[in-house]
Design goal:
alpha+beta, NADH Oxidase, 2 domains, 4-stranded antiparallel beta sheet, two-stranded antiparallel sheet, 6 strands, 52% helix, binds flavin mononucleotide
């Protein structure tokens, strides 16, 4: 299959077979990560692989309502790693302050996601499926503590990997023309924007379960593995919050604005605890 076809076919996979992954395949995934593009080729990255029952149970418990975290036979924690670089700089008699330079940080996070995406697509090419779990950014301190992660190392992304038991049929995306601009930025009108998102998600006021298949696949995938508790809760919340459209669904229910903004303080604190300071 061509890389293009793999890209178009790929879906986030959250239900896995109870089947381990051979070490030589894991090594290939890690080689793909290691060979990703890297700003200045500095490679400010560490990847912690988790396969043990203890590690999986801990991650599953800490992340909470996402059963795929515990059920995945393999997880990778992608960390921005300035610890190794700082030590190398010190023994080489040069100052390096990635922990104080927003620019180093941003490039390192871009590197990290390039590496993670290399793993995702390599996994895909070998018949594996994967899903990112960005929720790890809410428990950085706990993850650092549990997995003996030193200062100047930030666990920023979790990737769960396994052989797919089920794969969502489709997930709606914006039309290509909405996200692409020829030569100059095309500032869409309010009407065009509304239309673009209506085209993406379809009509809002249909059966909530059908809607969740398109707009809240996590809750559907979760109910396959954990019962209907989250699904029922989500349906109740749609009613209670009086949600009337797609944007309200996203920014009142899934990512409530107040909660998102208030997370800043926790993130900044976790960064400081890890020795990062951009003031
Ligand atoms: C940065 C990032 C963070 C994500 N975090 C989560 C997560 O915490 N839990 C989850 O189930 N999926 C997570 N996802 C997967 C998205 O929900 C998924 O990519 C999106 O619904 C589109 O579906 P697709 O990947 O099948 O195209 C994340 C994806 C990205 C890129």
């Amino acid at each position: 299959m061509s890389v293009y076809d793999l890209m178009i076919k790929r879906r986030s996979v959250r239900v896995y077979k109870d089947q381990g992954i051979q070490q030589d395949l894991i090594d290939k995934l890690l080689d793909a990560a290691n060979n990703c593009p890297s700003g200045g080729n500095i490679q400010p990255l560490s990847i912690i692989t988790i396969q043990s029952t203890e590690g999986r149970e801990y991650l599953g418990k800490m992340i909470g309502s996402q059963p795929w975290v515990k059920n995945a036979p393999l997880s990778m924690i992608f960390c921005i790693d300035f610890n190794r670089i700082k030590k190398w700089a010190t023994i080489s008699n040069v100052d390096f302050q990635g922990e104080n330079a927003l620019s180093h940080f941003l490039i390192a996070y871009a590197d990290l996601m390039c590496a993670a995406q290399n793993v995702t697509m390599t996994a895909e090419s070998f018949g594996l499926g994967s899903v990112y779990v960005g929720s790890i950014q809410g428990i950085i301190d706990e993850i650092r503590d549990h997995f003996s992660i030193p200062k100047l190392v930030l666990p920023m992304m979790l990737l769960c990997i396994g052989y797919p038991e089920s794969i969502p049929n489709t997930i709606p995306k914006l039309e290509r023309k909405v996200i692409t601009h020829k030569e100059k930025y095309n500032n869409l009108t309010n009407l065009e924007i509304e239309q673009a998102y209506n085209d993406k998600y379809g009509i809002f006021d249909e059966d909530p379960e059908q809607y969740f298949l398109k707009a809240y696949i996590e809750v559907i995938e979760s109910s396959k593995q954990q019962g209907d508790r989250w699904l029922k809760l989500a349906k109740k919340r749609v009613k209670r919050l009086n949600i009337k459209n797609h944007a309200q669904f996203l920014f009142k229910l899934r990512y409530p604005t107040e909660a998102m903004v208030s997370m800043n303080q926790d993130l900044i604190k976790s960064f400081k605890n890890a020795g990062f300071n951009f003031n």
